[in-house]
Each structure stands twice: as C-alpha cells, then as structure tokens.
Design brief:
The protein is mainly α and 188 residues long. The protein has 10 helices and no strands. Helix 2 packs antiparallel against helix 3, helix 6 runs antiparallel to helix 8 and helix 6 packs across helix 9. The protein binds fe (ii) ion.
C-alpha cells in the first residue's frame, strides 16, 4: 500500500473535513518525526511512507466506529490487513491501546496525535486563526493550562520524553513546523 492507496481508504471511511484535516496533520507530524530519527540513524521500523500512512490511517475509521468506540481502529486495520506491514497495523491499533507500542512509529503516533489537536486549538484562539504566527512557546503555554483544550491528553503528549527521548519543547517545535508546511490543507 502506498500513500495514494491510503488516501483512498481515508476517502472511503471518513467523510468529515475535520477528520481529513486531522489525518493530514498527523501524517505531516509522522513524516517529520521519521526525518528526525532518520538523521540520527535511529529508525527501527518502517519507511518514511509507512510512517506517513500510520498518520493518515490512525483515525480513518473514527466516524465509521463512532457508535461503538470499542471498535475504533478495528475497521481500518481489517481493511488494510495484508496490504501493510504488521508494524503499521500495530502502530494504528497501539494508538488506541489495542496493541503494545513497541516501535518508534507506534510511540510517535501515540504522542503526536494528541499534540496536533492542541496545536489546532492554539491556532484557533489566535485573532488571525492561523498557524503561521503561532510559536512553540505559546503552544507550551497552552500545554500548561489544564483548562485549555481539555481533550488533548497532556500525559499522552508527554510520552515524547519517556518513549521517544525528545524533549517536550523540541517535540512541539517539530510537530508545529510540520503542520505549518501544510497550513493551506489544514485551513489554518
Ligand atoms: Fe488522532
């Protein structure tokens, strides 16, 4: 399965523009994190394209399973079984606690997923509602306000330090910059 095939799966399962945007943001973050680890020769599993596919597909069945959240990730992993590596399946299932997060790819989507949500929320409260002028510092400030974007699980984001060995401020920087590069796709 290549990126184009993954996009077809997204189009088939997800109708809401917000889910599409979330998946594109997660893809951008995953590719940026792949590049970060690749530079240090630390990538343990998966190609750059596979890391991106994990981002694209991790929540692809979110709408399809919204009546039964226990099934979240089951629909999409069933659909792509045999077409992607087991590591991709495990990373997607792992972000919903349905598989052990053994690889960097699995740990990366777990931490980045929630951060993309916090970044979108931080952009939307700006007067211009744009990502362009948003700084990592202001995202970090928002991170420390528990009442801001409560849905973005801070503990989960913090696993960037324990699981990925990336300091939080650096992690925010990497993910924020990756999203700025596709701001037009995100409508931000
Ligand atoms: Fe997600």
């Amino acid at each position: 399965m290549n990126r184009q095939d993954a996009i077809k799966v997204v189009d088939e399962l997800a109708k809401s523009p917000n889910i599409h945007k979330h998946l594109l943001a997660a893809e951008a973050a995953m590719v940026a994190l792949y590049d970060y680890f690749e530079k240090q020769d630390k990538v343990d599993q998966g190609s750059r394209e596979e890391w991106g596919i994990v981002g694209l597909l991790h929540d692809a069945d979110y709408e399809a399973t919204d009546k039964d959240l226990d099934r979240h990730t089951d629909v999409v992993t069933e659909k792509i079984k045999g077409k992607v590596s087991q590591e991709v399946i495990d990373a997607i299932a792992g972000h919903a606690d349905k598989a052990e997060r053994r690889t960097l790819m699995a740990k990366a989507i777990y931490a980045a997923d929630e951060l993309t949500g916090l970044i979108v929320a931080a952009a939307l409260v700006r007067p211009d509602k744009e990502l362009e002028g948003l700084t990592a510092d202001s995202v970090l400030k928002r991170f420390k306000e528990p009442s801001f974007a409560k849905g973005a699980n801070r503990e989960q984001i913090k696993t960037c330090e324990s699981e990925l060995e990336i300091e939080l401020s650096n992690f925010v920087d990497i993910v924020l910059n990756s999203m700025k590069k596709i701001n037009w796709k995100l409508g931000l």
